[in-house]
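Ticket #4471: structure output looks truncated?

Reporter: J.K.
Steps to reproduce: submitted the chain below (379 residues) through the standard prediction queue, then opened the result file.
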Amino acid sequence: MEVRTLDLQEIRGQLDVIDRELVALYEKRMKLCGEVAEFKIATGKPVYDGEREKQKLEAVAAMAGEEYRRGAVELFTQIMTISRRLQYRLLAENGKTVDTGFTQVDQIPVKGAKVVYQGVEGAYSHEATMEYFGEDVDAYHVKTWEEAMKAVESGQADYAVLPIENSSAGAVSDNYDLLIKYHNYIVAEVFLPVKHALLGVPGGSMEQIHTVFSHPQALMQCSEFLNSHGEWSQISVENTAVAAKKVLEENDPSQAAVASEAAARLYGLTVLREGINYNKDNVTRFIVVARHPVYRKDAGKISLCFELPHRSGTLYNMLSNFIYNDVNMFMIQSRPIPGRNWEYRFFVDIEGRLDDPAVNNALKGIAEESATLRVLGNY
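Returned output as attached by the reporter:
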């Protein structure tokens, strides 16, 4: 039997025909999905039907030959994802949007505000507070980040200033968890360059040092310098300014603190070595939180958190909401959910404003398909 071999041009021609047929069928399918969306608008039924999609994928797998089964399931998974995005857009165009509970304002009111931060005077949180609210701010400090969040939620303070991530050491994980535990909202952010110095008692020297105190992240950010002095013990304390205050009060030349030069001036300590953080472009991002969900009309970043069912592909499906709506994602951070082993909640920063239709479409999809969705702030 003679086997006819197709040349490349002939194969490409056949592929072009098939592709045109696929596009025509795709458009036909999307039009039908639009009709489904109209039905759901009229009846209030949700777009996402997990059981229906599962049955559909099982049917596709049964229709496909073994060699192409996995690819066919993946293809139809994508087609159904795109179908849902279309339906979410149509629902949004008909007023079926996500009610985030946020109110747009011209400015975040700061005049006469009472602000709380963690640490003591001279801490980087104190510097960030003055950077945003001004040096005459009515501010006070507490011992822990959680106390600061409690103060805002209870109304004892109007705002709290908390570190959320550092360009060298990464996320401040505890504060991500506190954003979920307390019903406060991010209304602004402050970027503060971090320049750590080694501080000692007046008249002291590096040769006398045996113990260095600082916040764990500050010790991490200065690890190259500190680890080059293997004879020094490194001890964690609440924050950098607490370390500086401790060195001053104990007046022991064998002790030193890693803190800012501003803390050195405030507490009358000697700068034994400046700029000891290994990343000279080290920056900490602080968030300003309030108890009311408001956002400025010129806001450009949205922070949100969602939890997902423990199934393959769920994170991909969530992120596809941003892709389909052309929403830029800045950051994603995962945190374990207490009491649920190997399950995670995801914190995401995206570009945009809550009244942007594309953003609202993306949030609508996530709200329907995730276990929970919470908008943490638009700022």
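Triage note (M.O.): checked the attachment and the full token line is present. The longest strand covers residues 185-193.
Status: closed, working as intended.
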